[in-house]
Design a protein that fits this description.
Layout: H1 11-33, H2 57-71, E1 75-80, H3 83-91, E2 97-103, E3 115-117, E4 135-140, H4 147-160, E5 161-170, H5 174-181, E6 184-185, E7 200-204
Parallel strand pairs: 1-2, 1-4, 2-3, 4-5
Antiparallel strand pairs: 5-7, 6-7
Helix pairs in contact: 2-3, 4-5
Length: 211
Amino acid sequence: DDDDDIPQLSSHTLAALQEFYLEQQQREGMKTSQGLNQYSIGSIEEDWQLSQFWYSDETAACLAKEATAAAGKGGRIACVSAPSVYQKLKEQDGKDFSVCILEYDRRFSIYGEEFIFYDYNHPLNLPGNLLPHSFDIVVADPPYLSEECLQKTAETIKYLTKGKILLCTGAIMEEQAAKHLGVKICKFIPKHSRNLANEFRCYVNYASGLD
């Protein structure tokens, strides 16, 4: 028979594959039916290979509220590797602040001119129109729990901010965060939509509402 050499999926594997595709379609359909707009958390799915873990809705809302309060009326906010906070800020449709997102994942380029491609390995490789010390607050969440990643991201943060910094990273990075950015740990504990093994914390260098 000519078909003998053609690999055939077992009925069990085929059923599992069909179920996977059905779930995928349902998930996309649910996003549409729930009215998720392009700024909703989860509208762009996490890519674990890029060490992406989105905040829970409550945490993103809390950090967005803190950022707008710290920036003040007409303030400028930069979100460095913190897309969940950016999305929550945009969801608020605020007229009293402006915000941009610095992110390695080019899927976020759907946000147009507010998207700035960012690779922490080249911390000062930024567009010329991104002037030094032009943001009232920088919210940052370095993708990796390593001193090298934090140190390089810190260069970007210090270049962008007028002074205020809101950093989210692992509790194990407390000493390095103080060393590179002069930030102190807050009482507020950020949560992710999926539970992470590493304890996460927030750090600031100003009197915040997170204590």
